[in-house]
Germin-like protein (Digitaria exilis), 231 residues
Amino acid sequence: MRAAAGRAAGTVAHRILLPLFLLAGLCEPDPDLLLDYCVADTSSAAASLHLNGLPCIDPAAARAEHFATAALSRATSPSATAFGFNVTLTSPAASLPGANAQGLAMARVDLAPGGMAPPHTHPRASEVALVLAAGSGVLVGFADTSYRLYTQLLRAGEAFVFPKGMVHFLYNMDVSEPAVVLSGLNSQSPGAQLVPLSTFRTEPPMPEEILKKAFKINGQDVHRIQRNLGG
């Protein structure tokens, strides 16, 4: 009877584990490219397709300019935004078709004097930020899942890594000079979720009772913060 029970247990375990192994195989990262590159096809016909990425043009039609961009060379006006920052992100669809399916993106962050990129996350990417220009320096930092904070004051030419999914920020310490940061991200579509907007500027609005209890504030505080954020 023990042998029969053992065989039965083994059969049950096999039935449970086999689907799990198959599911794990389906959840692996995207496979490597089967071509040298996949220059994005940005035609209107290709835009009607819904893919995890963009379709490729014929590799024989690839040109050097598909792998180059000047999108990050132009300064923007961060002072016009609520937090005093502006981001220019490369995109295979708009500015860098040769980066399609390569698993990377670049971003230029313009920080006004005293401006900041407020606490935010990139759910699909790690980030390395290189300060190109700064007066008094750029204060950067992130918090891990143990709520430990790591901060560093960066000067021009210095860099800092933000691990994937961690809440992080960049703050221009100079109140008279702008700062410029160049970031590299290991995802074609890193995504960005700003913590202040994710809590106080959602559509439809987050229930007021949730905000009051989560932040230990009253209804007037909620409305004041929403107004300050443009809501």
In short: The mean pLDDT is 88. The longest helix spans residues 2-26. The helical segments are 2-26, 44-47, 195-200, 208-215, 219-228.
